[in-house]
Design goal:
This protein is of the alpha+beta class. The protein is 18% helix and 31% strand. The N and C termini lie far apart (41 Å). The strands form 4 sheets. A 6-stranded antiparallel β-barrel has the order 12-15-14-13-16-17. Strands 5-6-7-4-8 form a 5-stranded antiparallel sheet, covered by helices on one side. Helix 1 packs across helix 5. The longest helix has 11 residues. A hairpin with a 2-residue loop joins strand 16 and strand 17.
Length: 314
């Protein structure tokens, strides 16, 4: 469903799965600077929201996901993943508990499959799942002062009032430019069906390394202990001479050989055109690559040797 905030002055709708919210409100460079200064908010109301109620919800989700949830304190927000038996990421979410229910949100179009999986895994557990996307909307606020960036859940019919109080509004182009510069991947855009958490920097953020068994844990632990994941997330600095960005999924070439694919891309107000890409581990960090015909240099996000046996490159 389209956001009512598309009626704000200057709003231009996004593309594809992001069409229900604004790409920008007239100046994505100004919007980036405002977010960097800790001002305003981003409308992410196209993300889908699921509420998990019942006394068994936290230990149950703890057993199914990569995150440590069984003793999750009310108000604490954490990312988490559901992996397949081989350790590939099947679902990604961000959730918080209020003492009564855990509410999580995920990418547009992903909640139905997540709910279907969780319903299959309920067995005799005292939990109840409800998709509340129609009534709850996700927003994001930047860090300011001593505060951390945060996601907020807003009654959908109160979004216009929220925008009046929280403004100025910033669009997805500004949000993505800063996210890409931080090296933060977006599930389903910067990942594919073969992605394991170690490749994209989700170890210790979305994966808790000191919890008990969960599906796919063996792969995650083995790569974490031995290092050298098959691929690595990298930040690309794109040649800015062409007024375009590479489409999601574009081949990343070294010479004439495909060595990965491009995910998110954006124009950063200081760095220029940038993108995230998944690249084969053994590609030289100094090698110049080509993304959709544009030369691109690499900046390390995930160390190709990452694991307990090495120190991170940064």
């Amino acid at each position: 469903m389209s956001s009512p905030l598309l009626d704000l002055p200057g709003a231009v709708a996004g593309d594809g799965i992001d069409a229900p919210v604004a790409a920008h409100y007239g100046s994505f460079n100004r919007e980036q600077r405002a977010l960097e200064n800790g001002e305003g908010f981003v409308d992410l109301s196209h993300r889908e929201v699921v509420r998990v109620e019942g006394p068994d919800r936290l230990p149950w989700l703890h057993s199914l996901t990569t995150q440590h949830l069984e003793s999750l304190a009310p108000g604490v927000t954490l990312p988490g993943l559901v992996l397949d038996p081989q350790g590939h990421v099947e679902h990604a979410f961000i959730g918080a508990d209020d003492g009564t229910a855990l509410t999580l949100h995920t990418e547009p179009g992903r909640s139905a499959a997540l709910v279907e999986f969780l319903e299959r895994m309920k067995f005799m557990m005292r939990v109840e799942l409800t998709d509340v996307t129609s009534s709850r909307a996700v927003t994001w606020r930047p860090a300011r002062g001593s505060a951390h960036e945060r996601y907020e859940l807003v009654p959908r019919d109160q979004l216009p009032a929220y925008a009046d109080a929280a403004g100025p509004a910033a669009g997805l182009w500004a949000f993505d430019a800063l996210r890409i510069a931080r090296g933060e991947p977006r599930f389903g855009v910067d990942t594919d069906a073969r992605t394991i958490p170690n490749e994209v920097g989700w170890i210790n953020s979305a994966v808790h390394m000191d919890k008990g068994c969960y599906r796919g844990q063996e792969t995650v632990a083995r790569v974490h202990n031995l290092g050298r994941p098959p691929r690595r997330l990298t930040l690309l600095h794109l040649d800015g001479s062409e007024n375009r960005l590479p489409p999601v999924g574009s081949d990343l070439l070294l010479g004439e050989k495909s060595v990965g694919f491009v995910g998110s891309s954006a124009r950063h107000h200081e760095l220029g055109p940038i993108a995230l890409a998944l690249v084969k581990r053994n590609v030289d960090l100094a090698a110049e690559l080509v993304a959709d015909g544009m030369p691109a240099t690499q900046e390390v996000v995930v160390d190709p040797e990452v694991g307990l046996h090495v120190r991170p490159l940064r």
